[in-house]
Structure formats: C-alpha cells, structure tokens
Fold this protein.
Amino acid sequence: MSTLAIEFTTSRMLQTVYGTSNLVWANVIGLVLLCLTIGYFIGGWLADKRPYPTTFYALITLAGFASAFFMLLTSLILRTAAAAFAAMNVGAVAGSLIGVALALAVPVILLGCVSPFAIRLAVTDVGAAGRISGRIYAVSTWGSLLGTYLPTLYTLPEWGTRLTAVFFSVILLFTGLYGLWRHDRRRGVLALLLPVLLLPMLFFGLRGGIKAYEGQIFERESAYNYIQVVRVGDCNYLLLNEGQAYHSFYCDDGRVPRVSVWSIMLAAPYFNPAPVEVTRMAVVGLAAGTIPKQFTQVFGPFPIDGIELDGAIVEVGQTYFALNEPNINLIVGDGRYRLNQLDGPYSLITLDAYKVPYIPWHLTTREFFAEARARLTTDGVLAVNVGRAPNDRRLVDAVAATLLTVFPTVHAIDVPGALNTILVATAQPTTPDSLRANWQSLPPDAHPLLQDALETAVGHLVSVTPADFIFTDERAPVETLIDSLVLRYLLQEGLAGLSGLP
C-alpha cells in the first residue's frame, strides 16, 4: 500500500515542476521498479542472515520513517526546483531532479526489503511454502489496490501530496513500532526516537505552499492537476502543473488586452459564406472559461455548453475568472463522453483540451471527429487548437489529415506569437475567400474583439499539408509524436524556448 501511494505521490509532486508527460511517468515507474529490485535482493539476503521478527519490524519502522522524511525532503527540493524552472536555471533544475531520484530511492529500497523477509519468517514448513507465499502475495495485492485508489480518489485531492505522503508513511512507521514493541520492548521504546526526529521535518516540510510564484493568489491540488492562479497587472492567469503555459485568463471588467489562441476561435464560423450566425456552441476543454466568455461578449448570451474534466478548475473559474454567465452551461466530465451525451445541433464546437504538451489521444481520432460532426448543423464548424514547433508541423499535419477523413474542408491559422495552430473544419465545403469577405463586410459597429480576431486570422492563414497517417481509435500515437516534437524543440531552443506568462 505504501509503495503504490509513494509512487503516485511522487508523480504528483513531479507534476508541479516537470509536468505530466509520458517521460515523467516512465521515469517514476522505472525508478520505483529498479529500487524495489534492489530491495528484494537486499531483503532476501538479510532475511537469511538475520531471520528475526525484530529485524523485520525494524525494517518496516525505518521504511516508514524514511518514507515520511524523504518525501517531505522531495517537496522541499521541488519547491526550489520550481523557482529554478521559473528562472530557467537549467543546472538547478537538473540537480533537483537528481536529488528527487536519490530521495525516492531510499524509502523504496527499504520497502522492497520487506516482502522477501515476510515470506522467510512466515514459512516454517517447506510443505506450506506455496500456500503461505500465495497468502502474502494476496495481502500485498490488496495493499496495492488500497495504495492505488485511496490516494487518487481521496487523499491527494482532499489533503494534497505532502499530507498524503505523511499519512501512508506514518501508518507504516507505527505498524513497525507496534511490532517491535511486541517482540522487544526495549528496542520498541528506543525506536520511538524516530517519530521525534521526524518532527522538525514535519514542521518545515508541511509549512507554506507548494510554489511561491510572484503574484500567486491561489493554489490547490485537485484529483487531476496542480492548479495556480497568478495575477499580473489587472489580469488573472490560470496555470496548471508545471506552469509553462496558461490555460485561461481574465482581466478586470472583462477587458481583452490582445488577440490570443482563444480569440482566434471567434473567426472559425466566418469560413462559411455570409450571413454567419452562431446559435449554439459546445466547448471541449473549458478550463476557466476564456473561450465561452469571449464568445458571449461578441455574440451575446446564446446557449453554450462548456465541458471540463476537472471540476476544481471550474470552481476556480467561478471564483477568480468571473465564470458566471447564465448562458454558459458548466459540465464536468471527460470531453468525448460528455459531448456524446449532448444532442446539439451546434453551430460551433471548439476543442482546446491540452494537458501541456499533450492533447488527449481519444480527442484526435477519426471516430471522435465523426461524433463531433454528427452534432453540428449543416453549416457547423469544428475548431481545434493544435501545438507545433518551429519548422515542425507533424502534429498539425496529422490532425488535419484525420479531420479531412470526416470534413470536406480544413483551414489552418497560425496564432501569432505562439506555437499553436487553429485547425478549422467545416461541415460544408468552404474557401478562405469567405473569411476574407466576411471580415471586409463587418459593420463599423462590430465588436472590436471580433474585428481583431478576423483580421488576425486572415493575416495568418497557412496552407494545410495533410500527413499520410490517420489517427484512429485503434491506433493514435499522439503521445509518441508529441514527445518527439518536444524533444527536438528543446534540443534546438533549450529551456529558454518555453512559454510562460506575458
């Protein structure tokens, strides 16, 4: 139980600085398996050398102590790493990652020692070895189930990573202390020094926030994300996890200071011939509501269904981003599942479901795009935010190719000043000429944000070059493609190329 809980907690701690990429998860899982392997060897050797219950419970006690101590140390290291990441101090970031690996190794190796030792003590009759080892493995697996579901479903979203780490570690620590006290009261009393030694680390490790960005006004750990709100000037920005991109913004009184990724979405319906009318809309990837709020500003209070996976982000949107328009229907759940529960028809569906740098693969497939088109009007439009890198448009081209298997026409707009392309797929055949004509025929009293969005879209249209590969529900290697894109970009640009707050 404690091993799985530590694995999940470590990944969540790393998420706040290094993100949630497959590489981060692979490294956490790989390191845990390596340390467990070392622990199994050491535990088996030690069990044959000193097959005593006191040694066994001493191991459990040390494992509990080390888990609490080193997990809190990890949180302190990562707090420093977060500041280094914000300052783009590559050496400090790399050093922090090595420190985390070393800190994780100690408790996991000790935890690995326990299982072979338990089997060695329990087997007193070789004829019962199979039954006893099977029982121990069964109990161990039940523990793994608890260590998987308790942190992810309850303790991490309710208590946060640090208290979760302390909770599971203390259970382990006092289990070991109780066993020592039963078998050797003198050693059990001496071992009580360990909780005392842990008190200073608890005092310093549990104090303060997870990060301390300049202008930070809110932070929280949810079931899915580490959430920050940072205020710059008169605007609030929503940051998630490593914080190298912002997912929503809101300026006082609803001011929109510039055309952004989300503003470009306003141009999507205007690829249709005039007259253009937006009567109903769905947003997949609501975040704190920047897209529907800007559409409401421009088109008035028409019905909008906004879907967001993380309910905590919706709450943050309501509190810090004025997400309170009565025409916006807030829906919490998976974007594809919840969209399929809605009937439409929609004039426009927008898709902006990044968990930087990844788009969830099941939102990029031919089957999903067909489901989205079935919920569009005959002149409906699907607008998708896709990431790219300088001189590397492989992801854009692959998503465009997949869209073209479902939609007759796909247009591309490169967002200025960002590594994003908005792909606009129309349910009826269209040409860029309609966008230009609609822009030129806007009335003088048209909303300034709409005028700026259309002008920017017209000026940054790019040709679509579909890839040969099509994403399907059976095979959609989106993560592999994005890993390759990100690594190539970092090798070319370094950490200085990462985005951040304006």
